[in-house]
Specification:
- By secondary structure, the protein is mainly alpha-helical.
- It is 71% helix and 0% strand.
- It contains 12 helices and no strands.
- α9 packs antiparallel against α11.
- The longest helix has 40 residues.
- The model has no long low-confidence stretch (mean pLDDT 80).
């Protein structure tokens, strides 16, 4: 008993809020269906008999009062902060709810409006009339213009028209065009073969230009997704992005085919009547005239 008294008084295991002893119903009491009120009376009688000095600080009723007091103190301490957090969160979610706008009554009309605004934002980004203009980097139509005039243009300027052609290649093409007979004049077929070989070099930078323009048009889709309507309907935004992305992806092979056809058109017919060939014709005429003069001498 002395050891139990020391435990209940907190001398064995000191705790902050103290130890409260209770007497629970035994299995026999449960089997005999003893009432809770009778169990509480037996508990009080046991504590008064065995521990009269601390009987008023133990037992189930005292434990209930102590827990209730602790709970009330905890609520009183936490309630102001909890109330503030609830008010802040309520204000935040109310602002978020207000940003979504009025409830949607006509879903078909709302869907049409969202798609129309997305299309208008996409076009305005390309045309440069968008309200949200980037100031840190080129985007939209300006970026596409840069790709055509700077990236693609400089790539074409760096291409050497005679790159990959040696004097041996030119002589070999002339000899192959004349067959078994020695050539008195340079055959045009050898010129066309060499020119077509150089024209084919333009196809790769042209296809690269198409790829860069396609990537920028993909980026514009994400730029147009920051509208309020898109944030309000995230699943609709995701579906629109998927549809537009797949459409651009389907058009990419067709565009590449068109570029390849343009190069093939240039390869199909070499226009030697072009003004750029006038200077070459004058040089050829001058050489031929000099040869005639030399023969007369």
């Amino acid at each position: 008993m002395d050891h139990a008294m020391d435990v209940l008084c907190g001398r064995v295991v000191p705790v902050k809020l103290g130890i409260i002893g209770v007497v629970n119903r035994s299995q026999q009491d449960i089997n005999e269906q003893q009432d809770i009120s009778e169990a509480l009376k037996d508990e009080g009688a046991f504590l008064q008999k065995k521990y009269p000095a601390i009987a008023n600080r133990n037992g189930t009723p005292y434990l209930a009062r102590t827990l209730n007091r602790l709970l009330m103190h905890h609520i009183r301490d936490c309630l102001p902060e909890l109330k503030t957090r609830v008010n802040v969160m309520a204000s935040q979610f109310q602002s978020l709810l207000n940003s979504f706008g009025e409830p949607v009554d006509d879903k078909a009309q709302a869907l049409l409006q969202v798609i129309t605004k997305f299309a208008a934002a996409y076009c305005s980004t390309i045309e440069g009339t968008s309200r949200d203009i980037e100031t840190t980097e080129l985007c939209g139509g300006a970026r596409i213009c840069y790709i055509f005039h700077e990236t693609f243009g400089k790539t074409l300027e760096t291409l050497d028209p005679l790159g990959g052609l040696s004097m041996l290649d030119i002589l070999t093409a002339i000899r192959n065009a004349t067959g078994p007979r020695p050539a008195l004049f340079i055959p045009e077929i050898s010129f066309e073969l060499l020119v077509k070989r150089q024209i084919r070099r333009l196809e790769e930078p042209c296809l690269r230009c198409v790829e860069l323009a396609h990537e920028e048009m993909q980026r514009i889709i994400q730029h147009c997704g920051t509208q309020q309507e898109m944030m309000r309907f995230p699943k609709l935004h995701e579906k629109i992005v998927d549809v537009v992305t797949s459409m651009l992806r389907r058009r990419l092979p067709i565009t590449n085919q068109m570029v390849e056809n343009l190069v093939a058109i240039e390869l199909a017919y070499i226009n030697t009547k072009h003004p750029d060939f006038h200077e070459a014709s004058y040089i050829t005429k001058s050489v031929m005239d000099n040869d005639v003069i030399d023969q007369r001498k």
